[in-house]
Amino acid sequence: MNQxxxxxxxxxxxxxxxxxxxxxxxxxxxxxxSINKDFNVNLDWLLIDPAQQDNSNDTYILNIEGKEKELLSxxxxxxxxx
Length: 82
Known about the structure:
It is a single chain. By secondary structure, the chain is mainly alpha-helical. It has a single domain, classed as Orthogonal Bundle (434 Repressor (Amino-terminal Domain)). Helices cover 52% and strands 0% of the residues. The radius of gyration is 14 Å and the shape is globular. The model has no long low-confidence stretch (mean pLDDT 79).
């Protein structure tokens, strides 16, 4: 599979995929979910940077920002999202 085919499957342009690979910005939650579903990639592997693991209490820093991070924080804390 080439980059164009992969990009099409996950619903982004080849240019966007290139920028994601170059770490110019973080993928959207939709892109992450697509990679998870279409390629059976573990979500922990997609979201957690092992280099940022806090070994003192086995927690991880998620590689997400903004509203997505806020929503996941609410979810993990058991808060209502509505």
